[in-house]
Design brief:
alpha/beta; four-stranded parallel sheet; 8 helices; 4 strands; 41% helix
């Protein structure tokens, strides 16, 4: 690999195209899909790029978010323009076995990295609608109580953007 040229994520990443479930629109980028709905459910088989998509969104909204895009996006979805969105990435499969409440798991994400008073900070951001919640592996929640925690959290903070991934329960047709 020593002779391969160095590249950036922007140069080396081919965007995953999303196809609406109803099939009425052609496939498009996740940024375009986000302008249509504040809640996206990304369904794909193993290896399709779902987790990579969430990591890309976390990276994009952390490092390279365009304030104009975020303002347009939040105004279009919620009627209020925000300058930035804070991504929160959580692997639901890893959380499921932790025994911790989902909201507490999210609120402790920054505390794990030494951020003081992170729970209060994140709660204010969630209440203000300034978060992009990226939840991976919904299919790995095996109890209705775990799935209910996701639904309760989404209902408690409806002014945020939610992108949730899962594998199909049964194989998708070709």
């Amino acid at each position: 690999f020593a002779d391969l040229p160095r590249t950036t994520l922007e140069e080396g990443c081919a965007p995953l195209l999303l196809r609406p479930a109803d099939g009425q629109e052609p496939p498009n980028t996740v940024q375009h899909a986000l302008t249509k709905s504040p809640r996206l459910l990304v369904l794909g088989v193993a290896g399709a790029g779902k987790s990579t998509l969430l990591r890309y969104l976390a990276w994009y909204f952390t490092r390279h978010q365009d304030a104009t895009f975020v303002q347009h996006l939040t105004f279009r979805l919620f009627g209020q323009a925000m300058d930035e969105l804070m991504p929160l990435l959580l692997d639901l499969g890893a959380w499921a076995g932790s025994g911790v409440d989902l909201e507490e798991a999210l609120l402790s994400t920054l505390a794990a990295h030494g951020f003081p008073a992170s729970a209060a900070f994140l709660r204010r951001r969630l209440e203000a609608g300034q978060c992009l919640l990226l939840l991976d592996n919904l299919d790995q929640l095996h109890t209705s109580a775990q799935r209910a925690q996701v639904a309760r959290l989404a209902a408690a903070y409806p002014q945020n953007i939610w992108v949730i991934t899962l594998r199909p329960i049964r194989p998708l047709p070709d």
